[in-house]
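Q: I'm building a small set of examples for a reading group on sequence design. Run inverse folding on the following structure and report the sequence directly after it, with nothing in between.
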């Protein structure tokens, strides 16, 4: 139950994530053990620790490795209106989470230096991030600035629609997935997609970690999900440099 309402553990239901449920169950086990230690209850329920029906699992068991192919990304863009497209471009090019991109203020966009600078208090990992602005993202930012010169942007948010801040692209994403026949794709998967692309391009891991805000090499590796196309691109990049 969540806030008095039943929830489903279903990755397509957009409810509560595996990690959230897993941690809450672990906390429940901790509280039950404390209750037994303090003689409030006589015995604690058993939690299975092995097998596919494990109640409390390692977070790694719930790790997603879904990344968008270039064709899927293009298909989603083709089936979105421009305001939502520009947010998706930001996710694909910067590894920002959806809420980070949607709430992004112009104050964090350093156009002259060519970076988006996210302070530590703005991001989940509490570590500042510096992300280069790609040509594709710069084109979207230039469009937005031109539009906002015509229609007042009272919020000072980067991503707007008719001068008003965009609050979500979830509906636009779901509709685009249906029309483009893209399955099992979450907006957060574009963070994995971007970091995997950076790795396949041969970008040094310290640079990827700085842009993604990762604290450790293991955390960074968990976001790299190389598929066949990424391996081909990696070896192609090396061959081009050797030639």
């Amino acid at each position: 139950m969540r806030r008095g309402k039943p929830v489903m553990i279903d990755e397509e239901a957009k409810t509560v994530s595996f990690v959230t449920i897993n941690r809450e169950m672990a906390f429940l086990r901790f509280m039950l053990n404390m209750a037994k230690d303090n003689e409030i209850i006589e015995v604690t329920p058993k939690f299975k620790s092995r097998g596919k029906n494990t109640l409390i699992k390692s977070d790694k068991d719930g790790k997603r490795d879904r990344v968008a192919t270039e064709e899927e990304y293009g298909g989603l863009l083709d089936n979105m209106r421009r305001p939502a497209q520009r947010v998706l471009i930001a996710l694909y090019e910067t590894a920002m989470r959806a809420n980070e991109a949607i709430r992004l203020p112009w104050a964090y966009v350093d156009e002259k230096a060519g970076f988006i600078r996210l302070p530590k208090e703005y991001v989940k990992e509490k570590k500042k991030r510096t992300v280069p602005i790609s040509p594709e993202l710069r084109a979207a930012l230039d469009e937005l600035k031109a539009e906002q010169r015509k229609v007042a942007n009272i919020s000072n948010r980067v991503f707007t629609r008719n001068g008003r801040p965009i609050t979500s692209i979830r509906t636009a994403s779901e509709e685009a997935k249906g029309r483009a026949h893209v399955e099992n794709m979450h907006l957060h998967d574009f963070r994995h997609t971007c970091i995997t692309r950076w790795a396949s391009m041969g970008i040094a891991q310290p640079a990827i970690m700085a842009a993604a805000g990762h604290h450790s090499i293991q955390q960074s590796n968990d976001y790299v999900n190389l598929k066949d196309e990424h391996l081909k691109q990696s070896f192609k990049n090396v061959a081009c440099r050797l030639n």
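The mean pLDDT is 85.
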